[in-house]
Amino acid sequence: MRRAEQARERRNRIITISVSTVLVAGLVGFGAYVLNEKSEEKAQAEAAAKAPIKDEKSWDAKELGRNHVTTAVKYPMKPPVGGDHHQAWMNCDRDVYDKPIPEVNAVHSLEHGAVWVTYSDQAPAAEVQKLEDKVGSTSYSMMSPVKDQAGAIMLSAWGKQVTVDSADDPRVDQFFTKYVQGPQTPEPGAACTGGLGA
């Protein structure tokens, strides 16, 4: 009886050690897999951030004024991508505006690292909705209509701009990845809330 009990204890110990070993190996393997996936995602995001965006327009950030002004500003591009601006910024934390917003306040938001999505009457409603969903889930972004802009859909950041025809254009994600709080941002980390609303 004692031998049987010792054999049972030995068998239980072996089973416990075996199961524990398998569990630990599984956890280590899963952890390595997750770390590898995260590393690959990070590498892909970094590569996307460095890759040039097709047909992107750039302006020299040093030549764009950054003064706070109380008067109207005539910008050389529409929508503007930088320049002198009002001291109050537009809220740009997932903010979707259904009416045009003042350029002098929107430019201040770009200075804080926001991406500004604009669309004209030529943009299909389905594409506008997809972009609203993207902006609605992305901090440091805002969206508004701009009637007389050159393209149906335009994305602007400080000193950067691209025109696309659809929300599914891969350049949309590339632009967001590269320029939301991107290296072009004059005041990274500055607030995107506490400014002007609609």
Give a description of the structure.
The chain crosses the membrane at residues 12-35. The chain has helices spanning 2-50, 103-111, 125-136, 170-179; strands at 57-58, 93-96, 115-119, 141-145, 153-157, 160-164. The model has no long low-confidence stretch (mean pLDDT 91). With 198 residues, it is α/β, with parallel strands linked by helices. Strands 1-6-5-3-4-2 form a 6-stranded mixed β-sheet. The protein folds into 2 domains: 1-50; 57-179, Glutaredoxin, CATH 3.40.30. It contains 4 helices and 6 strands.
Features:
alpha/beta; 2 domains; Glutaredoxin; 198 residues; 6-stranded mixed beta sheet
CATH architecture of the largest domain: 3-Layer(aba) Sandwich
Radius of gyration: 26 Å
What's the level 1 CATH class of the largest domain?
A: Alpha Beta
Count of alpha/pi helices: 4
Strand content: 5-15%
Helix percentage: 40-55%
Give the overall shape, derived from the CA principal axes.
elongated
Q: Runs with pLDDT <50, length 5+? A: none
Structural class call reads alpha/beta
Keywords: Membrane, Transmembrane, Transmembrane helix
Organism: Streptomyces spongiicola
Transmembrane segments: 12-35
Protein name: DUF3105 domain-containing protein
